Write the structure tokens for this entry.
Amino acid sequence: MFEYENRTYEDVDFGGQDLRDGELNTCVFVRCRFANGSLEEIMTRGCRFTECDFRGASMNGSIHIQSAFENCKFGEADLFAAKFEDCKMTGSDFAGSRLDGFTVVRGDWSYTNLRHARLDRQDLRGARFYEADLSETSLQKADLRGADLTRCQLGKAKLQGADLRDAILDGVDFKSLDVKNVRMDREQAVLFMRAYGAKVD
């Protein structure tokens, strides 16, 4: 167990270090490498990670509160049962990462790559996915009420049983959506019908 507070690191390779069960408070990491590292059950609070490499890292059970992960790479990382609460994740790439059982509490996930992710039954209420890539993502029975999905890519996404009520869907290609068993509000239903050429008075 270790605790770092108010520290700044730039271009440091942490990949070979055992960072399990540690706690990071208001630390800054710029272009640092955590690739294939052991970060199980680590906690970050108010930290900022910019252009950091977490590819292949073990981050299962980790908790992140009001931290920022901007333009970071999480490819093949293990995020099983990880929790991100009110975090800024803009521009980060999660291609191939294990996201089963992870928790999103609001936060800004704009411009992230979450293609092929499994987010079934996730509580994603109020999260921001502005221009995020959720193509072919499984969102079955996910709660997306009030989420910002502006210009989000949802082609071939699995939405069966998802709740989209009050979500912002401006710029979404409705023709790419399979809305079977999806819960929508009236305004969304009208937008969907107009996308297929219906005239709604």
Summary: The two ends are 63 Å apart (CA to CA). The chain is about 5% helix and 15% strand. Residues 137-201 form a domain with the Pectate Lyase C-like fold (CATH 2.160.20.80). Residues 145 and 154 are 16 Å apart (CA to CA).
